[in-house]
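Workshop exercise sheet. Pairs work together: one partner reads the sequence aloud, the other fills in the structure field after running the prediction. Swap roles for the next sheet.
Pair: D.N. / O.F.
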Amino acid sequence: MKKILLLLPVILILNACTYEKAELPVPNLTCVTDTVKHLAPVVIADDSFSPQHLEILAGDTVKWNYTTGSEAHTSTCDGTGGTTLPSGGTTWDSGVLTVGGTYKTAINIPGTYNYICTIHGAAMSGTIVVKPRCQ
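Structure field:
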């Protein structure tokens, strides 16, 4: 009986600690805490975007740089022609770019954006995954 009475305070303390931990808020693991807005470069060459798959945070800017090649290209995401964007997502169209041309846009709505060169269609495509920023 004496051993049980000695263990009772320990059990109560451990139980209280467990209860307190359960009351702590659970962090939002789907967003990223970063207050700096970044510029993410994508290189355009004949028939490719590099990187083809890019991950950024909401509010970051993507800049396409057409560095080498001989053909005209675009970077387009408007929800048509094989492009997809999340509901309410940011749309863009660079217009026709030639070597030395650049285009940039800030993407503010989280989600997955599939974009293409409208001249070359799905054969020249890329994906941008935009993660939400924690508030």
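Discussion prompt: Confidence is low (pLDDT under 50) at residues 4-8, 10-29. What would you look at next?
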